[in-house]
Amino acid sequence: MRKLFVAVLTLAVLSMQALAITVYKPSSGAKVTSPFVVAASTGTCASLPAASMGYSIDDGQAIIEPTSFSALVTATPGSHVLHVKCWGENVSDEVLLNITVLSATTGSNISVATPGNGASVTSPFTVTASVKTCASVPAVSMGYSIDDGRAVIEPTSFSVLVTATAGPHILHVKCWGQQANDERLVSINVGSPAQAATPWFSVPSGTYSNTQTVAISSSTAGSTIYFTTDGSTPTTSSYRYSEPISVTNSMVLQAITAAPGYVTSGLARASFVISAPKGPSIPSYAIAQKEVQLLPNWRIKNDPGTPGTSIGSMTLVSDPTLSGQAARFYTTFTNAGGELYSVTYGNDTDSKNFVYDANVWISADSVLSNLEMDNNQVMRNGDTVIYAFQCSGYSNTWQFTANTGTPTQPVVKWIPSTAPCNPSKWTRNAWHHIQICSSRDDAGNVTYQSVWFDGVESPINRTVNSAFSLGWALGAMVANFQVDGLGASGSSTLYLDNFTMYRW
Question: How remote is the C-alpha of 128 from its chain's centroid?
Answer without folding.
Answer: 39
